[in-house]
Amino acid sequence: MDLHTIQIIHYVALAVMMVVYAIRILWFLSFPAGRERQPPTGTGSVNSKAGIIYSWLNVASPKGMESYRTHWFLYLQFVVFHLGVVAAITMSFVIADFSILMNNAAVVLTFRVLIWGACAVGVMRIIRRFTDKYVRAISSPDDYFSVILLTVWFGVAAAAAPFGVPSLQAEGSTLLIIYFAVQTFFLLYVPFSKISHYLYYPFTRYYLGKSLGRRGVFPLKHTAGQPTTAGADR
Amino acid sequence: MSEHTGRSHKAQMVLERYQKKLSRQVVGSLVACVHCGNCTDSCHYVLANPGDPTYAPAYKADRIRKLFKKHFDWTGKVFPWWVKAGDVMTDEDLEELKDTVFGKCTNCRRCTFNCPMGVDLATFNRMARCLLVSVGIMPEGVAVVSKDQWEIGNQMGVLKEDYLDTLDWMSEEVSEELDDPAAVIPVDKMDAEIVYTINPREVKYDPRTIADALKIFHAAGENWTMPSEGWDMTNFGLFSGDDDLGGVVARRVYDKVIDLRGKKLVISECGHGYRSTRCEGPNWAKFDIPFEMESSVDTMLRYIREGRIKVDKTKNPDKVTFHDSCNNARSCGLTEPPRELLELVCMDFQEMYPNREDNYCCTGGGGAMSMSEYTPRRLKSAKIKADQLKATGAKTVVTSCHNCVDGLADCIRHYKLGMGVTQLVTLVANALVWDEMPAAPGKPEIPEGVPAEMEPEVALDPDPEEASASEEPPLAGKRIVVADDDPDQVIYLKSVLSDAGAEIIEAADGDETLEACRKELPDMLTLDLEMPGTPTKDVFARLRDELPELRICIVTGRPELRALIYDQDLRRPEGYLDKPITEESLLRNVRKVLETS
Known about the structure:
The complex is a heterodimer. Chain A is mainly alpha-helical. Chain A is 66% helix and 0% strand. Chain A has helices at residues 3-29, 48-57, 66-69, 72-97, 105-131, 133-138, 141-160, 173-189, 197-214. The longest helix of chain A has 27 residues, at 3-29. Chain A is globular, with a radius of gyration of 21 Å. Chain B is an alpha/beta fold. Chain B contains 28 helices and 13 strands. In chain B, β12, α27 (562-566) and β13 (575-578) form a beta-alpha-beta unit. The interface between A and B is large, with 63 and 70 residues.
């Protein structure tokens, strides 16, 4: 199989993933949305709309969550890992359709740094999933497989990145084919695994933010400067 | 047993009802968990049970989630082992689920706030409780309380005549104290600005909070009323997960406000009551509320801001800290008004850490106080709360929740913290300044007839030693039987009460108590609920029969035993005190009991 063929297959896999996602969203929307009848509590900047926005952006504000405020290294891992996902996916489209961009050394370096960083975090996450008693207790085969799959994908992508330059594609075709093959599998597997969590993120946080915004809880007040954990955000 | 599925009848019913309970909010939380483990140490059960992953929020959530995966989710239907999908087949499986959803989670919602995905375990844990309750699988306490709320109309089974008697009693007390016949509770008054609803615990165990509210409303010149029915703003539907019960109970309150043409419903200090009535009730009852609702905390704060009542914070000089109720803070956003109020009515307010939406549960939430089978587990998890309380160095913890009062009192007693627990209404009432009344002789600006506990203890008394030397001790001439099998407790009670001028007769068991009361004919008895000899409930019944004039104050470290006394068809005790007891609380309550006619 040559690079061109696997790139076409990769696009087919992407299309399949999109179709499955669309079905998945329709399935999700088939459940009734509970209606909030209580009169709004919040005033001024505290309302449903503000609550929804706060809820969506909450993940970008580690100060807003004790679990990240007190475990900043886990938050850093989270950021690096997800930037790596974006980089690895973007790189595949750049190589397939805009490979001229790969002539820019800074672009390649950016991809490599982000993806190698994510790969390192992936290794840490694998270790944590196998060794942390609490995480192990909640892990399913899908959890183990997903993090291993992503870490392998990162490793292959980072290794293939230098060969994304048009003039080097022939030399690194084997690595590039493996990269696209892994990504193809990844795209087909994602909708059926927990990796598809990002599909639900906007909905889950929307409903939580809507309800808590209406009740005057979100946006959390302590982010406006009032400490809730001794010393943690002073 | 179902022939087709091999499941027990109850297990089959649970699964059939599961689907009907699925909303987008619930499904979102069921599908979005990535098992990252971030929620783990947000749970007080986990922190108090290191090394036991079965308390981890995600682990507990998976006991409920596995059913969803098995029966509703694609991958779980085809490859259940791959995503740990699972089933319930027998009643034993349901009992296991009961142990998790009732016994290992107080629905405090702390994990929700620490989940990057916004997974709301408390919401679907409540759903799981509902499914189990619908097939009769629940802790006995939940069944009893739910039954009372369905059948009698309030969760403690308080009869209408007892409720109205208590309101009369409090009216008499306050009007005598203030020497003002207008200082009474208006019942079923039409077109009032405020309809005030309470927790039945106030009627049954702590009526002084009703008296305190009366003083505040009276001082504010409020046009208010309390309803003769639909007065219980608590709602066990929140804890049992039963939306039908929740809707019916909430509707009782709303309908009564409408009947009375009340302008605003004010909900006394109770976390789950406020959440149920203010936030969830309209959803459960599918009813759009045509009047305003607010917490009494907001009401009291408004009165001070508007100058309708005046307060003197020097009347509450001791260091206090504040415990945020989970329902108030994480589900209703009621975090700042209580703090503003505390700053206005207390000299020394010490913040507890963590606080607001990061505060830990009192460990009595989610109906845990009614589930005695889980008490050891609850008290073990209370270690986290105990550490929090201890670190403040405060003498008293204030909370805006009756459930938390009991949970905290249990925690304080179990970990021997020696703190008192009180509510804002008591502190505000204590800080009231009655400046339109004439000053009593020898004391600046203190009106005659104002209760002793309202008098300034620090700032306004120029020479406390001189003043106390010239006054008769407050309990002079009173004879009190102190009945307790704990010698340390007897010594403590005896020393405090003797110093206040009372003559003390000791009794160490039920038989000695009966004998002492018959022989000495005291003015009052402080009665421990757990003593050897004749059972306390029988002691109480016999004394009510033989010595109807004797005033009895229950003093106990085991609030769950209160039912032994209060469920009897007898006149209720004149007083009730939770151990540990502060000196101030003991003297105030004993004086109140002795003043009761």
